[in-house]
Design a protein that fits this description.
single chain; about 350 residues; TIM Barrel; 11 helices; about 35% helix
Length: about 350
């Protein structure tokens, strides 16, 4: 991979290296509101020029629009110089009764519908269809997408299918992406996933994944791609808006108050809430990469600036002493040291 100013970390047990900051392509799939083709292409271009070399998408994002736009924007780039990930679990099929617009958060026509299917056959079809939409000959990482109500099917179908594709060299790594840490812990401890995509459960606002999931990843040699670090926008501004969202819904008043308290403390230490939210993930050596959703070139430039800002160590000490973050410097130092050798992978 071409060198960039961004540090890279390699997913344990693989040859897949990710830049510390990655491009999340849900917004260019018209998440919440429409984005023009030109703005989407400019966002990818700005990311590339800034040194980002990890790009994540999914069929779910805009009913395939995100994959098509991302593939088009990366066309012509040296394929060995970037890492591309997508997801399986939702097949896109013609909608027999379209009513106008998508009802799952994307401003796109509902001429397609999502069919949940975590079987081995569906996984292989989904990968083939994603390759076609992306216009590429390979996908580096494939995640099982949101299998919350489909544990048994994912375990019996998607996991062995993706493990087989990895072992054949068709993909470089596979894993699971979810908005919860409990089931991710099961995947980490009961399967041979290489990496997880952890959404919103290890942030400046909350660190539930630190109790068992992150230590399990360390023991098992599983990479962590941390996403949702701004908790649906609650931490994305210097001060949270009164109508800020959390988990894609109106944020409870108690969480808005907590975010305002975090902002107060950040100001005391000469930094901002979004800069601290981004840096928080970078501090943890168990985190392989942080992926942030970006819609425009301006958003890319803002996040790159945030990633380069220096956040004083005194902030973390203060937050820990106030009980606002869970881990201490000693715990982070333990993660930096050689951990227990990963046990043998579970038989599939």
């Amino acid at each position: 991979m071409e060198k960039t100013w961004l540090p890279t970390r390699t997913i344990p047990g693989t040859a897949v290296s990710l830049t510390s900051l990655g491009f999340g392509a849900a917004p260019v799939g018209n998440l919440y509101r429409s984005t023009s083709d030109d703005d989407a292409a400019d966002a990818v271009e700005a990311s590339w020029n800034a040194g980002l070399r990890y790009f994540d998408t999914a069929p779910h994002y805009g009913l395939g629009l995100s994959e098509r736009r991302l593939g088009g924007a990366l066309k012509g780039r040296p394929r060995d110089e970037y890492v591309l990930s997508t997801k399986v679990g939702r097949l896109l099929r013609p909608n027999p009764v379209p009513s106008g617009r998508d009802t799952e958060g994307f401003d796109v026509p509902d001429d397609l519908l999502r069919v949940r299917d975590y079987s081995a056959d569906a996984v292989k079809r989904s990968v083939d269809e994603s390759l076609d939409r992306l216009g590429t000959d390979r996908i580096d990482i494939v995640y099982i997408h949101d299998p919350d109500e489909h544990w048994a099917e994912a375990l019996g179908g998607a996991v062995p299918a993706l493990a087989d594709l990895r072992d054949q060299g068709v993909i470089g790594a596979y894993g699971v992406g979810m908005n919860q840490h409990e089931m991710l812990h099961r995947f980490v401890t009961e399967t041979d996933v290489n990496v997880i995509m952890l959404a919103g459960r290890y942030t400046l606002l909350e660190q539930g994944a630190l109790r068992d999931l992150i230590p399990a990843c360390q023991r098992r040699g599983v990479g962590i791609v941390n996403v949702g670090i701004f908790n649906s926008g609650l931490l994305s501004k210097d001060r949270p808006a009164a109508d800020a969202t959390y988990n894609y819904e109106q944020a409870p008043s108690a969480l808005i108050a907590r975010a305002n308290l975090l902002a107060d403390i950040c100001e005391i230490h000469g930094t901002t809430l979004p800069a601290a939210a981004l840096t928080f993930s970078f501090r943890n050596p168990a985190v392989t990469s942080v992926v942030v959703g970006m819609r425009t070139a301006a958003q890319v430039e803002r996040n790159v600036v945030l990633a380069q800002q220096s956040v004083p160590e005194s902030l973390w000490t203060d937050l820990h002493e106030r009980g606002l973050i869970a881990e201490t410097e000693a715990q982070l130092n333990e993660l930096k040291s050689p951990g227990t050798e990963a046990p043998p992978r579970a038989e599939q």
